[in-house]
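Write out the 3D structure for:
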Amino acid sequence: MTALDARVVVRRPTFTLDVTITATPGEVIAVLGPNGAGKSTLLGVLAGLLRPSEGHMRLGDADVTDVPPHRRGVGLLAQQALLFPHMTALANVAFGPRAHGVPRRAAEERARELLTAVDAAALEGRRPAQMSGGQQQRVALARALAPDPDLLLLDEPLAALDVDAAPALRSLLRRIVRDRKQTALLVTHSALDALVLADRVVVLTEGRAVEAGPARDVLARPRSPFTARIAGLDLVPGVVTGDALRTADGATVAGRIDGVADGEPGVAVFPPAAVAVYAEKPSGSPRNVLPVRLAALEPVGDLVRLRAVARPGGPLWVDGLAADVTAAAMAELMVEPGADLWFVVKAAEVAIHGVRGS
């Protein structure tokens, strides 16, 4: 087991990545973030494939900042298996140990052990073209583990798999990483992958870490629109005032205050299933009535998800909010994208959290 301590700074004309990543021995860190947040750049630096503008990287007691990729003790499992096409599964997995000077017989013995560990022993003599995508990814995992890396980098390893292969490999990854007590860093867009595989989550936005903490806490209490979206929640930013959140344009969203004092920045979070949708402004005095314009309709299981954008002249913070309704409710509404609607949320369904760093 090996600890990771890294600060990565990469400066480009239109983008700067500046993030510190630490992991205790055997800990798995998930890095989430929208496209362009810097996730791939971070992995490239940690793998030794990109040179940072400044910073450091230590694995255990060793400073590997300037160590070339093949000597820094890092394994990589990417979206695509990238196996050597002319080699068998056994030869692919044995390649790493052989490159580090391990005798052929010992390298092949280790390769067989790892192929068994990843439930791919039967693939020993097959070449990549004779394997399914899921089988190739199992072999690629064994290959990444074969040199016994101090740090395993997982670059969206399930993204290219079909819906049948992904759950099996996710379970396998969890078992292998936990059993080996492998220090790992996982880049993913999947909240499920983060919950199943990671101990902690770091969320990147525009090259900076904007959220960090235990995976369940970050995903259950999102502090950024991106995290809320992948966690399947609606999020409204603002400042806490009494029992509500006041948005930038002065509107209020009432909810349950969760340990946040007046005047502190916060976010109101609620599930799309808690949103009622009306074609006309509802009568009475519901606490949270939000004017929106329907942007898109998406199937979500047996429900229909309505994606909202701001109306012209309306509050901008409603952009991206979602409501989940039944097909029957959708039929009653009889609306199409472009229609003006009202999203209504009971205050009891809204949780108001403080923002990290407040």
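The two ends are 34 Å apart (CA to CA).
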